[in-house]
Write a structure and sequence with these properties.
This protein is globular. The chain has one domain: Lysozyme-like. Helices cover about 25% and strands about 15% of the residues. It is α/β, with parallel strands linked by helices.
Amino acid sequence: MPKQWYYVAIMMDLTPKLPITGQLLPYEQLLEARPAEQIDLVVIHCTELPDLAMAREYGERALYPSGTGNSGHYYIDRDGRIYQYVRPERTANHTRGYNPRSIGIEIVNVGRFPDWLDSRNQEMQEAYTEVQIAQLIALLNRLQGELPNLRYIAGHEDLDTAQVPASDSPDVLVFRKRDPGPKFPWRRVLAETRFTTLTP
């Protein structure tokens, strides 16, 4: 075990236990390894899919020549259960331009599904459940105890601000990413953790 991750393992034993179900993606070992000290950012996403099963299906898809795909490190289902698809010591593909330094946390939420880029369907209607937010806060606090430089947090929509032609009207531009969206309780999350918002 590399030295830096040995110390992280010791710290994990001293933090309160948070039930996390390990379900590593089939290609997880193909993702680039990185030292713990490199990680200073958490990016909050929502899946924009109906359920965790479909999120898993999307995460397992191999999209790159390396045999890897797009996914977060952790997923939080509507009932608050937390699943780990990628370990922190591997770089997951979840936010363009920020992957090497970040942890991606996906919260199950329908978002704009199934017409993500339809200009008539840009409202994010589903509220996050109370248990999802409580578990997210617990996970964030645990990760800060495990990763020595982790201090920044941002939403996916804050870091990927690209606009593309709407699927229903090419003359209209819509944002590629809108998650976690206006229903996400940023004030509470920041008040109950020690993170600082990252300004790109």
